[in-house]
Amino acid sequence: MSGQPTDYARLLRLQRVIKAMRERDLAEAKNRTATAERSLEELNRMFDEGGPIVGLFPDLLASYFQTTLSEKADAERQVKASGDELLKEKKKLETIENRYGEQRTSETRRDEAVAQAETLDQRLARQLSASSKIGKIS
Fold first, then answer.
1. pLDDT tens digit string along 89-132?
2. How many independent structural domains does the chain possess?
3. Three-state secondary structure call for residue 138
4. Is residue 130 part of a domain?
5. What residues make up the domain containing 101?
6. Prediction pTM value
């Protein structure tokens, strides 16, 4: 290790970007699932109504139905995978936030200790200076 403290502020910003990307991926997958569901509902309605298109192109509609089912299944798998990834990124973000908070607290305590030591050094220097002046008077 280089001995330099970890830049948790930078890691925090990066992790927030990654989490936002995972949230976007999840939203896109959910949108694809919803679109496939609407298409399937429309196809089911067409089959139930038994319109002229169903009679003219049954093989084409059956193929489209299978393709849409496959797309929906793929989208649902992507929703699960994206959800899992998002959960991992949220946990990472929480860990980084905690470590960043601990680092900030540690830095604040260290800065306070340095300021307190400087104050004590100044008081001691004044007392020594005053006592040496007193010693010259007598």
1. 999 999 999 999 999 999 899 989 888 989 888 888 887 776 66
2. 1
3. coil
4. yes
5. 8-137
6. 0.71
